[in-house]
From TrEMBL:
InterPro entries per the UniProt record, alphabetical: DNA/RNA_pol_sf (IPR043502), RT_dom (IPR000477)
Protein name, as recorded: Reverse transcriptase domain-containing protein
The species this protein was found in: Flavobacterium hercynium
Pfam families for this protein: RVT_1
Domain Reverse transcriptase: 170-289
Domain of life: Bacteria
Length: 349
């Protein structure tokens, strides 16, 4: 790895963040970018070289600056009694009660650069293992399906992939209906996905070229430091290896975490269409049978659980509180958001 790799990673970081809504990272980069930028990147390169030589003190100083920030995800509204929907432009209140929050990593720009370096050197291999049915946060590739090594573009445009994911599912359903088949569309959403993941980055070490494995260990060190902070502040209850929301490497890892689930669905279930946009799943079925009682629950049992694709129905009371259905990834449970499970049925008649 050379200084030029560091500079390219920084340019890629700036290019990608420019098109995001991450104001805090934008502000951090704005402060970081000054007349001393070349010197800063050179110092980061030296710290990385020291880390490779097992002198971790300077990198650990950066890791020691990792914090977290909370952003409201939803607000509770005491004006809503559940009987209907209220919209008004009179939204001024003295205070708002936050219902749910999203936890973001708050870290030095250098940590973000390391995250981009990890994508450039390691994440590209994991991304290539993902099938075409994984739509979100995919890396730019050339006509030979090779990672674009020198372009400042890192990810494909999210809105194009999102539209393709949604539109291809709908188009498949339309095509089946046109030829006289019953069609069912099942939409699933995994609850609190990033903070529910328990990902040991050592599990794919054999896929990484030996000369760059130190970079994977560096990302592991970053993840462990972040998880410890969340445990200390009672954000998570156990020392799970969660993915830091806000690090671009986490978008690759969040896709790869479900790579085996994707494979099982495609090869065991074999739906007419399967598409996953990070934690949002669409399945299209031809001639699926719907039962008269408990339609949604029985549909999931018949078409996911019975097919043995790692989907399970909650049995104990604690699981039922969290969600009625969950995916098993090794020993970890990822719950579907029951309120967001949707089933659309279109008869041929």
């Amino acid at each position: 790895m050379t200084l030029e790799h560091i500079k390219l990673a920084y340019r890629r970081l700036k290019s990608h963040v420019y098109h995001e809504n991450s104001l805090s990272v934008l502000m951090s980069i704005a402060k970081y970018e000054d007349d001393e930028i070349d010197s800063k990147l050179t110092k980061l390169f030296e710290k990385i070289q020291n880390y490779k030589s097992n002198n971790k003190s300077s990198i650990n100083e950066l890791i020691g600056e990792i914090k977290f920030s909370l952003m409201p995800k939803s607000f509770s509204d005491d004006r809503f009694d559940g009987s209907g929907f209220l919209y008004t432009n009179q939204n001024k209140k003295k205070e708002y009660l936050v219902d749910r929050v999203t936890v973001f990593i708050d870290c030095p720009v250098e940590i973000h650069i390391i995250s981009i370096l990890w994508i450039m050197e390691i994440g590209k291999y994991l991304d290539k293992e993902l099938g075409p049915y994984c739509y979100g946060n995919r890396l730019e590739r050339n006509s030979d399906d090779d990672f674009e090594e020198n372009s400042i573009k890192l990810f494909k445009k999210y809105y194009i992939n999102y539209s393709q994911w949604r539109d291809q599912g709908i188009q498949t359903a339309k095509d089946l209906h046109k030829i006289g088949l019953d069609v069912a569309i099942l939409n699933l959403d995994i609850k609190n996905y990033y903070n529910s993941i328990d990902f040991d980055l050592n599990k794919f070490e054999e896929k990484i070229p030996e000369h760059i494995r130190w970079l994977n260990q560096l990302l592991i060190d970053i993840h462990l430091a972040y998880s410890e902070i969340l445990v200390k502040n009672k954000i998570i209850s156990s020392n799970k290896k969660v993915l830091p929301i806000g690090l671009h490497s986490s978008t690759i890892l969040s896709n790869y975490y479900l790579v085996n689930f994707d494979f099982l669905v495609q090869n065991k279930l074999k739906p007419a269409f399967y598409g996953r946009y990070v934690d949002d799943i669409i399945l299209v079925y031809a001639n699926a049978k719907l039962k008269d009682k408990d339609v949604l629950e029985n549909f999931i049992i018949d078409n996911l659980i019975s097919a043995d694709v790692s989907v399970n129905k909650s049995e104990d009371q604690l699981d039922k509180i969290k969600g009625d259905f969950y995916i098993y990834v090794e020993s970890n449970k990822l719950y579907f958001q029951t309120k967001k499970v949707k089933l659309y049925n279109f008869n041929k008649d």
